[in-house]
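G protein-coupled receptor, pasting as requested.
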Amino acid sequence: MKDPMICAEMEKVPTDPLYISIFSFYTLSFTLSLFITPVVWYRFCRRTAFHINVKILISVLFIFGIISSAFGLINYLFHMYHFVFPSNPCSRIFYASECAWSFYSLTCCIFGFMLAQASLTIERLIATYRLRTYEKGHQYLGPIMATIVVVSAICCVVWGLAEMDPKELQYQCGGVPVSTKSRVVSMYKIMLLVDVLAIMAFGLCYCYNRRTLKCGRYELSVRYQVYENLRAIRIFVPVVTAHFIIFGLFLMGSIIIREFRASLTPKAYGIGLLALYIIPFYILTMCTLLFVILRKESNRVTSFQAAIAEKQNEKEQQAETYFRSLRHQWGT
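Structure tokens follow.
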């Protein structure tokens, strides 16, 4: 049984006006991203000419975004129901086992975002290394890497939450229990290292492709592959950079605040952790950046097609003028 006195003390955090404001703001972000993400995903898959492996890995990011947004919104509705319709003095406080559905799903999405980002970098590195054969010989790389990302994310969250105490009391189902602190912090440190290595590898890949394109030592087919690879890298640089900044802040902040939990008041600890949960902003930022990129790419293709059509019309007009002069010359 839950102790009403402990419940009354714990309720001071989720009923704090600042906590409610931040929680509501995040929920609004989750709601927006839940509607925006499928639209941008559809536009990305239908209106871009990237390699199929790139589309698959970006689709994994979108899928994790949709799942995270959906469970974030469900989590808010779950808490609002118990907040508005309390059935007993402890109805707003939950056992960890009652929040397991949220812990596992949202934490799995966090790991999934970071692993998908790393897999996209690895895919571009392989495309750079296998310039001559990548287009025809690596069609199965995308599905294989997507499967590895999903399975790895599930394994990470299962291992990270394996020490969860089912009877630990929670006032928020959106984070992770204190009983899992050691493993979750360890996973966050590993993911932070993976994120740093991924952004460094992405930068090196960009520099190498740019230098290769300028040197001009390869035949036309290889130079075309380098150009396409460089185009994909340039387009995803803003997304990769935003991912690194946002998740870097989230991971470092989460590690620091969990390490110094003993020196913080329960209210400061709870509000601090909630304020650091900036995942919905990452989803919205990713969708916004990709939408802008798609618009620019579409405008570029339209301008290119218009230029070709204009040149073709000029050639037709020149030919018509030439034949008119011939007819005039021969009096026909």
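Note for the archive: The domain at 4-330 is CATH 1.20.1070.10 (Rhopdopsin 7-helix transmembrane proteins).
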